[in-house]
Amino acid sequence: MTLALQASGITKRFPGVLANDQVDFDLAKGEIHALLGENGAGKSTLVNILYGLYQPDEGQVAINGQPTRVASPHDAIAQGIGMVHQHFMLVPPLTVVENIILGYESVTRGTKMFGQMSVLDRRTAAQHIRALSQQYGLEIDPDAYVRDLPVGAQQRVEIVKALYRQADILILDEPTAVLTPQEADDLFVIMRGLAQQGKSIIFITHKLREVFAVADRISVMRAGRMVGSAKPADATSESLAAMMVGRDVILQIDKAEAHPGQPVLRVENLSVMDDRHHVMVNGVSFEVCAGEILGVAGVQGNGQTELAEALTGLRRVADGKISILDHDVTHATPRQITEASVAHVPEDRQKHGLVLTFPVRDNLVLCSYYRTPYAHGVEIDYSRIEQTAADLIHTFDVRTPGMATAVGSLSGGNQQKVIVARELARPVKLVIASQPTRGLDVGSIEFIHQRIVQARDRGAAVLLISAELDEILSLSDRIAVMYKGRILDTLDAKSATRQICGMLMAGVVQY
Amino acid sequence: MKTETKRAVNAYTFSRIWNSAFLMPLLALLTALVLGALVIWVSSGSFLTVIDAYSGLVRGALFKERGLSESLVATIPYVLLSLAVAVGFKAGLFNIGVEGQFYIGAICAAWAGQVTDQLPAVIHLPFTLLSGALGGAIWAAVPGYLKARTGAHEVITTIMLNYVSFRFVEYAVSGPLRDLQSSAVQTPHVSASAELWSVAAIPERLQDPLNALAVAMCCGLVAFLVARVIRRRRERLALARPVTYTIGRGKPARAPSFFTRHSSLVAAVVTTALVFVALPVLVRLWWPFTDPYDRLHIGLLLALVAAVAIWWLLWKTTIGFELRTVGANPNAARYAGMNITRNVVLAMAISGALAGVAGTVEVLGVSICRCLPMFFSSGYGFDSIAIALLANNNPFGILGVSFLFGAMRNGADLMELNSGVSKYVISLIQALILLFTSAPVIMRWVFRVRVDRKAQEGPLTRGWGGSA
């Protein structure tokens, strides 16, 4: 078996992030190799390096056994690598032919009258495109305008575009994210056909079902490292799920027995849609009581993000009811929910949780700047804010040069501590924590875990949403597993094991 | 040891502030002047022309008769308009329509100023200023609302509204608001009660006891605020000091007297009374500004007050905190429970109100006829965008930069007269200043200035994708 592509020892650093750490990857001729991993695991970085968008800090790439350097996407195309991006790179007002030949136009010699000018040869191109689409079973109309095509057809245009440029290696970056299940199945048929005719395919996804449907080989990435590789026949959903979300260092938390009290958060038949109007949370019901931690486990993208946003007023609720301490907050604003003594540690700390250009001091009062004692009327009393900030920086061990330092210049762990300090220092009755330790160092993780358990012991109800199965297992008192927008089962933490959770996360209900 | 560290910290803070706030603009100014000199030299063929031009510029701006006054007169609208731009920038909005809001403010003031002559100045003048501010605020709030609700980009909508406002003002001046007694196409003179007092007229104005009382009360208000700031500072120091408790027969603390408890109120009352009694007499006995052709007017104080007020609003109030948060990270603002729509509309309204006041000031204080003439062209609005950028949106920086621009605008005439160099060279120099300020990379490269990573700021405004 000859290798179409081989990458070894690829390392790529971004400021503060090790995106790829000594990654080895290879692709055989005519193979569909699935690259599996959570968001932020380093899959995209890896394929962007292969496609020449990034240069690796370390490591080599070889194509067809020849060591090479992919300097740019243009270079990648010249070496037979084509990529279909998650967000299509098409020009909607142009036709399919025009889009496909863009940058690689075939021309006929201009007439005398036009001097040096050449004439675009659409006809030959269209013929070539028809031939290609017939050969690989990619049904497209070369003369249609791209803006009129459905998403699935646009994707076929992208694939034909890569083939037109004589790609032998195709990189498909989360191709199914924008497709309906039916369209996805059609795509898999096309992928099989391409592979049979000798094309090699790298298929990026984080959906387990899909790798079993189409892949010849599966590699799993986590936190920038390649953690395992398997044939579909040898792998199970649960083993892959565990590989995707597992953590090398299993942290043990000392926590006392939970003493659940009255229900604080009650969710009934909640349905939430994402920005593209796909139902992401589908009729979910649960309760969180005072003094307990309910962990929501699940592979990223099964509705957890939308659930947290709906609970905190950031996303509109499509159907169902949310109540906190028997007050209906289904359609409450974020401010009303905060005022109902709810702390929210948001999933994306830089997008929602912090104003990076603001000083640490201001970020510590981001949700309470308008209340006494920080403000009298409209006037802010900065001396009070500074007192509080000094206090919080000390008790939450935020490592910062000073409270006037812009929060954006702190490390990720300290940024998260600023958020946790702000949210948990208030007298809260409900804590909603989404991925509270994602991307942090071990020390910060431990610190934040302790604070969450402390909040529980002081009588707060805690809803912990995490894709880290180990985090869920070590912190939670009860565990709800989400899959495709539904809670498949709620387990008692004592009886839950990695295996059971892993199977549920993969959508397997019988165990 | 401790003082040493403190001194080191102070020195560090100083150098950082110096680097981020002053060094780059100064270098930009210097480079622009040098390049401007080169242009003059090359185009005239003689280096002497450069000296003539720049000396004429300085003389015209500062030293000729009424030179400084005229520079200050031009500074006033610059200050108000660039504050308007800065408020927008701080909330992540690029209000490129200040020129249009300036026009709307001017026409509203021209209407309100002449609508009656029965009111005393203490009512008519504030009423006219408010009309101008309100006109500008409403005019600017519309694109703010469109931005917040539909995502229509404010750069496009405000710049289009500029043309609407120009044409609207032309219509109003030549139609419903036209002064039929005058041969020129202009609005009627505003009543004397609505005029902004020129400095020469102040002694005469203060003879009216109502005016004197109003001025005295303004002074009293300032005294009140100053006293409050002093008291706050003292309280904060007390707060920082460790508290010691006396138990048992300790000497009871002296109960605070009425005067210490209400120190700011006392200060206000005393100041008001003193000013009311003394000022009219004093200005009658001695007043330095006697030139009746001196156009400098009390709008200057208005501009200074506006700068302090905007600084206070942006940095010391919850309103400013919200505006700046929405500008810096709208997602976090929403998470923190702030109302994005309200803040965007509010920012635009404040911005428009300031621009409207600038237009009002031009009508009530500067124009010879104290009215709005048909061909009322200013160009102040577009310069102000440059000023706000150059001053890094700092209200106090704006005061300085506005004076620089006002002086250049005013000195340009004498420069032309002195050296034959076209006064549009000033626009060239101003454009170069702006270019170098907005492209600090060039300046850092030319002058080899280190990048201070901590001083880096986020993007000034959001692009098309800004989800508000």
Report on this model:
The complex is a heterodimer of chains A (511) and B (468). Chain A has 511 residues and is an alpha/beta fold. Chain A has 3 domains: 146 residues, P-loop containing nucleotide triphosphate hydrolases (Rossmann fold); 178 residues, P-loop containing nucleotide triphosphate hydrolases (Rossmann fold, 3-Layer(aba) Sandwich); 62 residues, no CATH class. Chain A contains 17 helices and 24 strands. Chain B is mainly alpha-helical and 468 residues long. Chain B folds into 2 domains: 321 residues, ABC transporter involved in vitamin B12 uptake, BtuC (Orthogonal Bundle), CATH 1.10.3470; 80 residues. In chain B, α1 crosses α2 and α2 crosses α16. Chains A and B meet through α10, α11, β20 and α13 of A and α12 and α13 of B.
Search tags:
heterodimer, A: 511 residues, alpha/beta, Rossmann fold, 3 domains, six-stranded mixed beta sheet, 24 strands, 32% helix, B: 468 residues, mainly alpha, ABC transporter involved in vitamin B12 uptake, BtuC, 2 domains, 72% helix
